[in-house]
């Protein structure tokens, strides 16, 4: 990654999280020298402060070019960019990048620097004190779910792809920029890590309220992450810019429907989080609890199953009454191992997958460090899916009705206008 793409600190007021700033693109155009047609042509778009907007579209449609014009890694040929109340089109690009974090697919970490040095880079360039930087690095590592003690001295090559991506995000956020640009940041990691990184980003956004522009060509990722999605066609022309719900239920044309693809109902599951449905408590026991107390729990409680937690309170095994009968004094071989858990930020689709994988009829919900929070069961999931689809259908009918009414109003107005025009209205 070129040095200029590194975000730099947002002045001195970077100690606490800054909320996002709105972004406005006005007639933005990029014509690469020697190309017959512009790569981005006359794009006008308003992104609200604190919103996560996803650009999605076919390869080569201009997503990255549009994104990189926002921090002027690519200079627009014409048009304007506003961030907050500033027109940043003519501003010194290095200064501009101090307020715009940037995370990319290959994480862009410097291989010869430790994790801590990578994260500290921008605050250091801006002249923060040593103590403040040390504190910020710890804070950032914690924020992205990496243990500061364990990771701060490592080099990028000593990290997994997912961990590198996390450090890349930590670095982009280190100087607390109000705007974060993410160019296919999770494109190069395996699907499971990708799912986790997406969950982490959602959690981060709940805490930080940045304005995030995120590029992907994976529509499922767009649905999962976006407050709004801009479906782009060639030259970044906006085919539809709306909420995931609206795009799934009311695609404006065949191009957008093609992108939504089959299985819109199932994709709908990506739109609701575990935190939005009923996470309930479940009978739990610890691995070190005496066997007798687990027996008592199963006998006296109204359940015939308990979730066994390990010493860090992480879900470990599902134990049924029958398992205990066969346990013969030790829990070592009793019960069924927990294979999959979800966080509160996981989607219902993740939860459904986990329920099916574990075949326990429910999935354990965990916190940031994998600790038990509660469970979601199959019935809750099915009821929610049913309600969601029903609500979507109603909304779609209402939307169609509104469109028809608006059309009728326009026709009436046009007819009335014609009458006045005929009576000699000014040209
Ligand atoms: N430096 C450049 N010089 C000339 N043309 C370029 C340059 N960078 C990109 N392009 C062209 O501009 C168009 C848009 O490219 P861009 O990378 O913005 O698309 P994208 O939608 O992000 O694609 P992808 O999803 O494949 O990354 C493409 O036709 C590409 O070939």
TrEMBL record:
<dbReference type="Pfam" id="PF00005">
    <property type="entry name" value="ABC_tran"/>
</dbReference>
<dbReference type="InterPro" id="IPR003439">
    <property type="entry name" value="ABC_transporter-like_ATP-bd"/>
</dbReference>
<dbReference type="Pfam" id="PF00571">
    <property type="entry name" value="CBS"/>
</dbReference>
<keyword id="KW-0067">ATP-binding</keyword>
<dbReference type="InterPro" id="IPR005892">
    <property type="entry name" value="Gly-betaine_transp_ATP-bd"/>
</dbReference>
<dbReference type="InterPro" id="IPR000644">
    <property type="entry name" value="CBS_dom"/>
</dbReference>
<dbReference type="InterPro" id="IPR027417">
    <property type="entry name" value="P-loop_NTPase"/>
</dbReference>
<feature type="domain" description="ABC transporter">
    <location>
        <begin position="23"/>
        <end position="260"/>
    </location>
</feature>
<dbReference type="InterPro" id="IPR003593">
    <property type="entry name" value="AAA+_ATPase"/>
</dbReference>
<keyword id="KW-0677">Repeat</keyword>
<comment type="similarity">
    <text>Belongs to the ABC transporter superfamily.</text>
</comment>
<keyword id="KW-0175">Coiled coil</keyword>
<feature type="coiled-coil region">
    <location>
        <begin position="389"/>
        <end position="416"/>
    </location>
</feature>
<dbReference type="InterPro" id="IPR046342">
    <property type="entry name" value="CBS_dom_sf"/>
</dbReference>
<protein>
    <submittedName>
        <fullName>Betaine/proline/choline family ABC transporter ATP-binding protein</fullName>
    </submittedName>
</protein>
<keyword id="KW-0813">Transport</keyword>
<dbReference type="InterPro" id="IPR017871">
    <property type="entry name" value="ABC_transporter-like_CS"/>
</dbReference>
<keyword id="KW-0547">Nucleotide-binding</keyword>
<dbReference type="GO" id="GO:0005524">
    <property type="term" value="F:ATP binding"/>
</dbReference>
């Amino acid at each position: 990654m070129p040095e200029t793409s590194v975000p730099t600190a947002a002045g001195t007021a970077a100690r606490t999280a800054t909320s996002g700033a709105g972004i406005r693109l006005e007639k933005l155009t990029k014509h690469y020298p020697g190309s017959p047609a512009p790569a981005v042509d006359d794009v006008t778009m308003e992104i609200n402060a604190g919103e996560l907007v996803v650009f999605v579209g076919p390869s080569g449609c201009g997503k990255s070019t549009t994104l990189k014009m926002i921090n002027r890694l690519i200079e627009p040929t014409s048009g304007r960019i506003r961030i907050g109340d500033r027109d940043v089109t003519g501003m010194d690009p290095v200064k501009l990048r101090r307020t715009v974090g940037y995370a990319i697919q290959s994480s862009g970490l410097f291989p010869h620097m430790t994790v801590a040095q990578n994260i500290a880079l921008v605050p250091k360039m801006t002249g923060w004190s040593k103590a403040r930087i040390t504190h910020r690095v710890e804070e950032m590592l914690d924020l992205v779910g990496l243990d500061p003690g364990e990771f701060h001295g490592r080099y990028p090559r000593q990290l997994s792809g997912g961990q590198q991506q996390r450090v890349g995000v930590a670095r982009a956020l280190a100087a607390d920029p109000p705007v974060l640009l993410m160019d296919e940041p999770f494109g190069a990691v395996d699907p499971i890590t990708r799912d986790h990184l997406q969950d982490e980003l959602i959690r981060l956004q709940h805490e930080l309220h940045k304005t995030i522009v995120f590029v992907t060509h994976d529509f499922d990722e767009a649905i999962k992450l976006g407050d709004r999605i801009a479906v782009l066609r060639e030259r970044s022309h906006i085919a539809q810019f709306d909420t995931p719900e609206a795009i799934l239920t009311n695609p404006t044309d065949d191009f957008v429907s093609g992108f939504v693809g089959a299985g819109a109902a199932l994709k709908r599951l990506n739109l609701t989080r575990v935190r939005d449905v009923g996470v309930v408590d479940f009978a739990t026991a610890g691995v070190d609890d005496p066997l007798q107390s687990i027996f008592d729990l199963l006998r006296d409680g109204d359940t015939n199953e308990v979730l066994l937690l390990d010493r860090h309170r992480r879900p470990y095994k599902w134990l049924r009454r029958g398992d205990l009968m066969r346990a013969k004094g030790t829990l070592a071989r009793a019960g069924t191992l927990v294979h999959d858990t979800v966080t509160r930020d996981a989607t219902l689709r993740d939860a459904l997958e986990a329920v099916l994988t574990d075949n326990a009829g429910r999935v354990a919900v965990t916190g940031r460090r994998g600790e038990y929070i509660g469970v979601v069961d199959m019935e809750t999931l099915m009821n929610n899916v049913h309600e969601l689809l029903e609500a979507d259908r109603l909304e779609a009918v209402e939307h169609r009705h509104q469109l028809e009414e608006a059309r009728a109003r326009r026709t009436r107005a046009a007819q009335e206008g014609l009458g006045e025009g005929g009576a000699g209205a000014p040209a």
